[in-house]
Amino acid sequence: MTELLKDKVCIVTGAGKGIGRSITKVFMDSGAKLAVITRSQEDVDSLNAEFNSNSSKFIAISGDVSDQDTVDHF
Fold first, then answer.
1. Helix (H) or strand (E) holding 13
2. Where do the H-state alpha helices sit in 1-74?
3. What is the mean pLDDT of each run of 10 residues along the chain (74 residues)?
4. Distances (CA, A) of 1 to 32, 67, 68
């Protein structure tokens, strides 16, 4: 999978916990560039602490993807 995702841009919703967080880790370990969204700022802070060692390859925001304005901003 590493070759398939290297330098690809991946979007992960629900990235703060559970499956979404696990997917974020797999994609990051595979060299993907990530844009992730989760509902809580606490989860954003945790994601940034874990994955934002290279800010040009990772961005996390808080928001609800059922809200169109949030999706447009994201």
1. strand 9-13
2. 2-5, 18-29, 41-51, 68-73
3. 82 96 93 94 94 81 93 89
4. 11, 32, 32
Query: φ, ψ for residue 44 (rounded to 5)?
Result: -60, -45
Q: Between 41-51 and 18-29, two packed helices, what is the crossing angle to 10 degrees?
A: 30
Residues 6+ apart with CB under 8 A from 51: 24, 25, 28, 34, 58, 60
* Residue 45, amino acid: D
> What pLDDT is stored for residue 56 in this prediction?
80
